[in-house]
Amino acid sequence: MKHTINDIARITGYSKSSVSSAINNKPGVSKKTREYIMSVVKKMNYTPNEHAQNISRGSYRTVAIIVRDIANPFYAKMCRSVEEIAEEKGYSTIIVNTGGNDERLMRSLNNLIRKRVEGVIVDVSNYNFEFSELIKSHFIKCVVFGIDSKDFDSVEADDNKASYNMALHLVNSGYKSLTFVCPILERNVYSKRRIEGIKRLVDSMPDVEFKTIYYDDSSSVHTGYDIAKEVVEILKPPAAIMAFNDLVAIGIIQYLMGCGYLIPEDYIVTGFDNIDSILFSLNTVNIPVYEMGECAAKMLFERIQNPDKEIQTHVFDAELILKGR
Amino acid sequence: MKHTINDIARITGYSKSSVSSAINNKPGVSKKTREYIMSVVKKMNYTPNEHAQNISRGSYRTVAIIVRDIANPFYAKMCRSVEEIAEEKGYSTIIVNTGGNDERLMRSLNNLIRKRVEGVIVDVSNYNFEFSELIKSHFIKCVVFGIDSKDFDSVEADDNKASYNMALHLVNSGYKSLTFVCPILERNVYSKRRIEGIKRLVDSMPDVEFKTIYYDDSSSVHTGYDIAKEVVEILKPPAAIMAFNDLVAIGIIQYLMGCGYLIPEDYIVTGFDNIDSILFSLNTVNIPVYEMGECAAKMLFERIQNPDKEIQTHVFDAELILKGR
DNA sequence: TTGAAAGCGCTAACAA
DNA sequence: TTGTTAGCGCTTTCAA
């Protein structure tokens, strides 16, 4: 049913090793036999078994990307850019979706270890000791995406500066009160960084008020929609709401519009990430996710080639995208 | 560096086979030795090599999902539901993103064959002979997602009925002219099905006019934004635009709003898919993607267990979601 | 240029 | 209950 290299050897009359050399484009077979062998390979529809190849050569040529939400176009883009680099290098890419769940993260990591991945690019919403230890104990190369890390290489965006600038834009537009809606700090380190950015501005402006509203959930459209109910109770229009990301912003806006509020007259809502599927007039922050993914992948392969090089961190600038006002 | 089963055997003083039995929870080892072996396994941080296990037992327990755009939340949801079922069955899932590119589709399929996947769930935007033949010649089980198929099991939504109903709703709302914006027929079989649904209605209403505007691109927000320029030239407000899916609808709406048009007063735009990140007032069609993914996965595993059963097709109802008017 | 043989890490049949 | 042995599909070394 499924042919093996032995079948090809038997049919062609050559040995396994010659067939292997022919298939893998290695020297040591005459042009004639190579062509003959390849013709039989083709005719028989033979495809080498990757597992056997891996086992035999003791190398697995696989990397993984671990993200918390593949349904967020932001991460989908990141995966795409990583996959491209990996394919160039002849590596397979495994995409793992954790849903921000640490238990699933660890279960997936164990599966990846079973598969002997050489490296992972991981988007963790928070520092995870258990994860780091397991990665290190198995000598898996790792690039952390989104936040800095003392243990591994990392690629991040300048959240602090970006949220500072967004806050500044709102203040310059005349808003005297800013409200940041984000995941609880225990859930997501980005909350802290972005809050710090906003605070850095607000602290220098005594007449500007700053509030935070937290949710303990993943940052989705639904979450934004739900938390918006709380927001309107606390916050009377006109007001400025800074949402943790675009999805949450969309959810908030949907709720507000459903209540009959005018956007941005009653509530101005800002986002983060600059995903494609956004409302026309949403001010957001562009995270150069494609470039960051590319950078992360390159760093990972450099690390695989040279495990002992110094740990590096790349910080990307995140600029304001003012599509609204 | 990386331990093998031999190391564990050596350290514990037991044989490979005993270690193997202990690890795989198989009978034939005393409770005492099993516990001892497992303690060493734990201490040594040993994880079995899945490739070797696969090779040795001659089974690979892997399925794949092939989708055209993982950045579309619609497909991300589908993948999630399939993964859940697969995990229950002890299978790994590989997600492949083709970008609607047939060349990439074939390259990926060859990789999957190399990995000896047992089955695939595939979302092809169009019938692909080469793909079908390759799948069949390697005895890979297959479930087609979205459209029916004579070669494989399939799961689909009732596009025809849904677009009929959406058109009916617009007509009932007073629109005498409907314009459907969709991918060219060669690119996407869904275009045809949805057009047929609308035509079925329009043909019974002599006073209603029906137009189509085609694009030759993937159905994204950007595509919608771009094609909208063409739409406004052809179509004067007030008018009804039926977009191929929600992403395209969002793109169109963004462009129209940018031009200063009122939605839905000047142009009413409808979508398809019912993804989360949509504008508040978008009328769309709910495709029960989660249930469909679940169904597809179950069909796939049934087919793996019983390769000779009759080919099946499940059709899911797709109901109107009227969030607008 | 070719082939024989060993070995990769594991499972499974069978013997002890 | 435990160990020995063969074998999974492949690569690689080395000898012919």
- Average predicted local confidence, pLDDT of chain A: 93
Write down the CATH topology of the largest domain in chain A.
Rossmann fold
Overall shape of chain A: elongated
Report Rg of chain A.
Answer: 25 Å
What this model shows, in words?
Two copies of one chain form a homodimer. The first copy, chain A, has 325 residues and is an alpha/beta fold. The first copy, chain A, has three domains: 5-48, no CATH class; 62-157 and 289-316, Response regulator (Rossmann fold, 3-Layer(aba) Sandwich); 159-286, Rossmann fold, CATH 3.40.50. Chain A has helices at 5-12, 16-23, 31-44, 50-57, 73-88, 102-114, 129-137, 159-172, 189-202, 221-234, 246-258, 289-305; strands spanning 62-67, 92-97, 119-122, 141-146, 153-157, 177-183, 209-215, 239-243, 267-270, 283-286, 313-316, 319-322. In chain A, the strands form three sheets. The first copy, chain A, has a six-stranded parallel β-sheet with strand order 2-1-3-4-5-11, sandwiched between helices. A four-stranded parallel β-sheet of chain A has the order 7-6-8-9, with helices on both faces. In chain A, α5 (73-88) packs parallel to α12 (289-305), α8 crosses α9 (189-202) and α10 packs across α11. Chains A and B meet through α4, α5, β2, α6 and α11 of A and α4, α5, β2, α6 and α11 of B. Chain A binds a DNA duplex (16 and 16 nucleotides) through α2 and α4.
